[in-house]
Amino acid sequence: MRTEHAPTIQRADYRPLAWTVERIDLHFRLDPTATLVTNRMVCVRNPDAGAGPIRLWSEALERLSLTVDGKAPVSLREADGQIEIDADGERVLVEVLTRINPQANTTLSGLYQSNGGYFTQCEAEGFRRITCFPDRPDVMARYTVTLEAERDACPVLLSNGNLLEQGDLPDGWHYAKWEDPFLKPSYLFALVAARLEALEREVTTASGRKVLLQVWVEARDLDRCEHAMESLIHSMRWDEEAFGLELDLDRFMIVAVSDFNMGAMENKGLNIFNTKFVLAKPDTATDIDYENVESVVAHEYFHNWTGNRVTCRDWFQLTLKEGLTVFRDQQFSADMLARAAGPEGAASARAVKRIDDVRVLRAAQFPEDGGPMAHPIRPDCYQEINNFYTATVYEKGAEVIRMLHTLLGPEGFRNGMDLYFSYHDGRAVTCDDFVEAMAEANGRDLDQFMHWYAQAGTPRLSARASWDAASASYTLTLSQHTPPTPGQPDKRPLVIPVALGLIGPDGQDCPLQLDGEASPGACTRVLTLTEAEQTFRFVGLTAEPVPSLLRGFSAPVILELEEDDARLAFRMANDADPFNRWDAAQRYSERVALALAAGIADELPQAYVDAFAALLNDGRLDPAFRAQALALPTEGYLLERMSPADPVALRSAMVVVMHGLGQALADDWLGVCDAMQVSGPYRYHPADAGRRALTGLALRYLCAAGDERGLALAQARYEGAGNMTERFAALAALVQSASTASVPALEAFHQRYHDDALVLDKWFALQAGAWRWNEAAPRTVECVRALMADPAFSLSNPNKVYALLGTFFRANPGEFHAADGSGHVFWADQVIALNARNPQVAARMARALENWRRYTPALQASIRPQLERVLASEDLSPDVAEVIGKALS
Ligand code: 0A1
Ligand code: ZN
Known about the structure:
Blueprint: E1 9-10, E2 19-29, E3 35-45, E4 54-57, E5 62-68, E6 76-79, E7 82-85, E8 91-100, E9 110-114, E10 117-121, E11 141-150, E12 156-159, E13 162-168, E14 173-184, E15 191-194, E16 197-204, E17 210-217, H1 226-243, E18 251-257, E19 264-265, E20 270-274, H2 287-302, E21 311-312, H3 318-369, E22 381-382, H4 391-424, E23 428-429, H5 431-442, H6 451-454, E24 460-468, E25 473-481, E26 496-503, E27 525-529, E28 533-538, E29 546-549, E30 558-560, H7 565-574, H8 578-597, H9 606-616, H10 623-630, H11 635-640, H12 647-664, H13 666-675, H14 686-704, H15 708-720, H16 724-735, H17 742-752, H18 757-768, H19 780-788, H20 798-811, H21 813-816, H22 822-837, H23 839-846, H24 857-871, H25 878-888
Bound molecules: O-methyl-L-tyrosine and zinc ion.
O-methyl-L-tyrosine binds near residues 299, 300 and 386.
């Protein structure tokens, strides 16, 4: 474990290293407890830096020897995981021999074992746990790697790039030698040595090169790789067409591993994936799993250009690769959905994807931006970089790129990308370099836009409007304000693209004409707000319109607009922008749920039920869109809108809403279940997925309402399901009801999938997320505790922890925050237990309570001692210490 008091690292302190590495030759003799790593690296003076020693980082390494040009170094200093070596001349050969223990490495960072195989994870700072190295992304070197292992245990030996040679060694061992022709930073190094088999495909790139694609998995999973392979091929084609970017290697490999901290990792030519984002077959994966596999495969593949060919100068620039790559994978998924939907359905399909993305942003990033961990997409400081793989860096970062795309237009954006690659291919650069390329390619000044990189907090956008009947003009005043965040009391105005439409009383969009313009133009246009407040006057209207602001969610802001029930219902029915139509429904639900939670209302307004009924029964609307529009906002988002946040009161309100909509519209929901049946064998297709999603939602409402017909239908659908999507939706509906029918269904499900780890994750998550519909039922925390004793559960497997504990802490606030404080005590116990094994996973769980000061005084009083207990616990990792320290500060 590293030192408890991690120093804070400042972005402003960046300095180039005096010595970098030109070439590195690595040799591994793989052994479960005593792997020998020989590192021969050619260190060269950095012409961009002043004089200084060679600096190497080292963590959890047993160093057996270190020489410089074959001799013991004249002067070597070592402190806090850093080694400084004085060296003469321009170029020296540094050789380091280290011994490591992959079996004992429970952090899953560096070299570790999983199911008897060897895997690596080096981003962000795992390479220093393999060998001593200047482990920073601005050190780009050429790698050759030799792997030696016992052939029986590890018949497959993989590393980055091209296979140079392989063969037998004495005593049942064998070896393989790999060479990566591209310069890369150490965080993109990877090796895999395991008993795996591959699904292979040979494809031809746009320029006519033949390349080999492989998906490596355990033999029993070979029948679950086809979708990942197809997703990879689609991603390759898309990047060629959308950005003119081609695969640059002769071979591209994806490897699945069941113990992995994150989703996947873009190591050069050797992507390593959490099995959750590779494996899919109809009997075990839901439509959402299929969708996730496609987008994660795409995300990692797209990193090959945005991240690998052009990488980050330092970790503060993480959003340079992550925000951009998330934006790219979002665009890819939207294009794939639109293509499948055909010309008629394309717009709705794109909106469905946009809604998904914004739902994630609101549920995960908005709370982060309003809490003690709030940081700009390019942070100014951190204690532990692993804590900064956040929704802000990823999802808000993608929104910032999307705004550039909106402001510059698709062609301008593409020109900017082309210029970015032409300037920076093969280099480690900054976010400024990216935005400068965008500015230069478009002849634009983007200085003010850069504030998006520097300011934390979710901006509030508000609008005032006035209608002047005499001149038939509509004046809209938009203003912006970003609340203070830790360390940033004052904020400057941002560049905010506001896509807007005006809806006439007949429900039709009005062509827009600003005062001073000769004629009316399109019905949706983008206004660019750059000041704290700006006024726009629209003319040529015949009646007072209803504004539809921020269409397509054109900026990651909170729109503060007073809209009464009637106006929300009107926009739910008429807004031509499907995103805003969905958003109107979300806002309406928010109003209703928060009024119930506050005790201002005790039942659902009839107009609300009618507005939902109208959407539900509008057969012209795409089922996938209806499923989105009829789903309630997440509790996480609603708690953010509640002050003080009272998760238990909110839960009671949500029960009333689910029950009320389920009961009032029971016949309609049943009708939907009937009308939306999908015939034929399962295929992952958005049209079928939309019908299944709407059916699943219908079953949830019906079961929440305790409707007998709905419960019987869910049971029948569970038993007759021909695929996991339908089976799981029916099971989820039963679990989210007061009915005892869920008990045998959960048992049957467990029996059927008892040896399938990924499916069992669903089973754990479902129970951890269960609401308590019945006062007599045990508290969910007791179920979670009992499930931890299940032989399939393990605190050492991140997927299990995320499924059971993560779901309980993050997706079940009504139970987690039960008034007796049992959830909070349990949380502290688990964070402490995880801290000793896997600090990254522990820190993620720890973050579940960071926004504790937003809760009611009673909850705060229950949470504080638990935060303090964790902070006082022994051997606290810097990861957890940073989270808890900030929460308590
Ligand atoms: N770069 C990967 C995510 C990733 C980040 C850190 C990891 O270990 C600490 C692992 C993976 C991505 O964006 O997909
Ligand atoms: Zn990424």
